[in-house]
Write a structure and sequence with these properties.
This protein is an alpha/beta fold and 508 residues long. It has helices spanning 45-60, 62-65, 69-85, 87-98, 102-125, 163-176, 191-200, 216-225, 238-249, 273-285, 305-317, 337-352, 388-391, 407-415, 430-439, 472-477, and strands at residues 8-9, 11-13, 16-18, 25-30, 35-41, 130-132, 142-150, 153-157, 180-184, 209-211, 229-235, 254-258, 263-267, 295-301, 356-359, 363-364, 374-375, 378-381, 398-404, 422-426, 444-447, 466-467, 480-488. α7 (191-200) links the parallel β9 and β10. Bound molecules: NADPH dihydro-nicotinamide-adenine-dinucleotide phosphate.
Length: 508
């Protein structure tokens, strides 16, 4: 066994590494070459019980519960410093785990994670958890306060496309609000999240942040149904999200769902076509197209269709697909074999339908990485909006192009989808583009760009793309619950108007 294969990712519970109470483990595969590089403990309900119990104990510690918002903010800043100090190793682990490029990890994941932590650290320091409502006037004087409180133990269930980024985007607001956490990363990508939690344990009190590795059917479901879990925050497929919501209903848990998308990008006649060609490929092919908010339905005015297709093919020709650790690589492998097979299945279906491939449509075997899961940048045109490749989330480097002849038709096609996460407009008329944006049914609309995520801007879906918002103030409030405290200042029972509904002759 090579040194690399001796790597094992277990759980992290109550401030320490924990192998789990059963010896079961599975292989972890590097999608860049298809080789096993580590093993991972397969947790079960017993491990989830241990992690939730640790998180519950930590939540009930006065030192955590009574911590001031100022101190909590300082603690979060320290988390950011830890990540900054270990950025290089986290980037490497993330790339080997998920196939994301080192260029992405260095240029996006680490900077955005540090920015997000700084944002929530600042936000919690200036958050007043108690708001006074106006005092009610005499004769029945009273006043009320609205308190924002943590929920308790929060279960975070995360996918494989941006493991660190999505984990941090949930962990940090959950901790900022005063909760404690049990996180379950995808079984395809246990490494970066487990390592991140181990690193953060240097600054966080024990039990505040725990990881249980394993699959969705056992660990995910045990978390979702656990009576001591107050909230489940999930990112992943719409199908699993709906299932989680149903299961969580049994114990009335709060649920946050960040689900799939099929983002329409409307390219108007007046768009700058060079800008659009680079932007559409960035919007749809970044991270091998494995991003929920990707723009994957490209609605193009018929007058500019042929010209734009030429430009898109030329831009795709410049993309370098291969070794994710090479800084020159545009995008790396698909994150796992299942997903690769799904994508190739959609491509084969489009071929069988006789659709027109502007470019791509084949797997790639980069030299030295023949065992990895690589797919060419693929653009398919003459697509009708009711076809599978226009309606299903492919989650790969595959763009479907649909022609339109007038603006209203484009807006209708854009909205004819069960999803509603992202949408966009490419146009030189910014005022008019905003009028179109108003009519698009999606949580984020981008004009002349894509993936414009910001720490302070709420992000989430309309329709089947989810429930709730992450990032921004909404992202913090999603991890809080509201309590109202009413204080009556009226000492004379005869003046308490509601009491007269029961008492006929109250005495002073
Ligand atoms: P899933 O939705 O299955 O996985 C996301 C997370 O949910 C993983 O941690 C998974 O665990 C967990 N999970 C799976 N089943 C359950 C369950 N019954 N209860 C609780 N948790 C569960 O996504 P896939 O990995 O299967 O990808 C399939 C498709 O989902 C993709 O093709 C893409 O369309 C979409 N997707 C969307 C993402 C997004 O960002 N919105 C991210 C990833 C995928 P485990 O995998 O370990 O079993």
């Amino acid at each position: 066994m090579s040194l690399q294969q001796e790597l094992h990712y277990g759980h992290f519970i109550d401030g320490q590494d924990y192998l789990g109470h059963t010896p079961e483990s599975i292989d972890v595969i590097n999608p860049a070459n298809g080789e096993v590089y580590a093993t991972m403990s397969m947790g079960d309900k017993g491990d989830v019980d241990a992690a939730v119990a640790a998180a519950k104990r930590a939540f009930n510690q006065p030192s955590w519960r009574e911590m001031s918002n100022n101190d909590r903010g300082d603690l979060l800043f320290k988390c950011g410093q830890v990540i900054g100090a270990h950025a290089e190793e986290l980037m490497f682990i993330e790339s080997r785990d998920s196939g994301g490029t080192i260029r992405r990890a260095a240029g996006m994941d680490i900077p955005i994670v540090i920015d997000l932590i700084g944002y929530y650290a600042d936000l919690i320091k200036t958050t007043n958890n108690i708001v006074d409502l106006p005092t009610k006037p005499l004769p029945e004087a009273g006043h009320a306060q609205v308190w924002q409180e943590p929920i308790g133990v929060c279960a975070l269930i995360t996918p494989w496309n941006f493991p660190i980024f999505i984990a941090v985007a949930k962990i940090i607001p959950a901790l900022a609000a005063g909760n404690t956490v049990v996180i379950k990363p995808s079984e395809y990508t246990p490494a970066s999240t487990t390592h991140l939690v181990q690193l953060l344990s240097d600054v966080l009190p024990k039990g505040v942040l725990n990881v249980v590795n394993g699959d969705g059917a056992s660990v995910g479901e045990a978390l979702t149904t656990h009576p001591d879990v107050g909230k489940v925050s999930f990112t992943g497929s719409t199908c699993v999200g709906k299932h989680i919501q149903k299961m969580a209903t049994e114990s009335c848990k709060l649920v946050g769902l960040e689900l799939g998308g099929k983002g329409p990008a409307i390219v108007m006649k007046d768009a700058d076509l060079d800008l659009a060609a680079y932007g559409i490929t960035f919007g749809g092919l970044f991270n091998s197209g494995q991003a929920c908010e990707s723009g994957t339905r490209i609605l193009v005015h018929e007058a500019i269709h042929d010209q734009l297709m030429e430009k898109l093919a030329a831009v795709c020709d410049t993309l370098v697909v291969g070794n994710p650790l090479d800084p020159a690589t545009s995008y790396g492998p698909i994150a796992n074999k299942n997903q690769y097979d799904r994508i190739m299945g959609y491509i084969d279906g489009a071929k069988q339908q006789g659709l027109t491939f502007v470019c791509g449509g084949e797997p790639i075997k980069p030299k030295g990485f023949e065992g990895g899961y690589y797919v060419q940048p693929t653009i398919i045109t003459d697509v009708k909006n009711d076809m599978d490749i226009a309606q299903q989330e492919i989650f790969g480097p595959v763009l479907s192009v649909i022609k339109f002849s007038d603006e209203q038709q484009a807006i209708e096609i854009a909205n004819e989808t069960s999803y509603g996460l992202s949408a966009g407009v490419w146009s030189d008329d910014l005022v008019h583009a905003q009028k179109i944006a108003k009519q698009l049914q999606a949580g984020s609309i981008w004009i002349n760009d894509w993936h414009m995520l910001r720490s302070d801007a709420p992000f989430g879906g309309y329709k089947n793309s989810g429930i709730g918002r992450e990032f921004g103030i909404a992202g913090l409030q999603a991890f809080m619950q509201t309590k109202t405290i009413g204080v009556s200042l009226e000492r004379d029972p005869r003046n308490k108007m509601m009491w007269s509904l029961l008492h006929t002759s109250p005495q002073q």
